[in-house]
Amino acid sequence: MVSIEQKPEYFEFINRILGVEFLPDRSVVIASLSDDGVLLGVVVFDRFTQHGCELSVASISPRFLTRKFLHVLFYYAFVTAGKRRITAVVEDGNMIALDMDKRLGFVQECKMRGWFGDADGYLLRMLKEECRFLEPKL
To answer: Three-state DSSP class for 121?
Structure first.
């Protein structure tokens, strides 16, 4: 199941896992839930600009990335919010996230030294015309 409700528990989930503080008045959250309502993963869009936004992800299960969920989150960013670009930053050493983002179609643009304190970050992007998840394949 996919939830686009801006529930406090979704923000608490991603904030706890990532150790950050996304604020409901500046961010949009999309949650992936199991059929029995267990929260599996959360995507937050924030840092909105005229042409883009930043995406952050936290999950407890790889099952959170269903085709329906991917369609909803990319449709939100590219159609509902009207952005042309999504930016993501992945911590150096998080090869699972980096590999997943690249398989989804994100393109690595650069490596940013010290982005995560002692760890570097990889800056990734997806442009609307590069996204293959806008058409639902349910």
So the answer is: strand
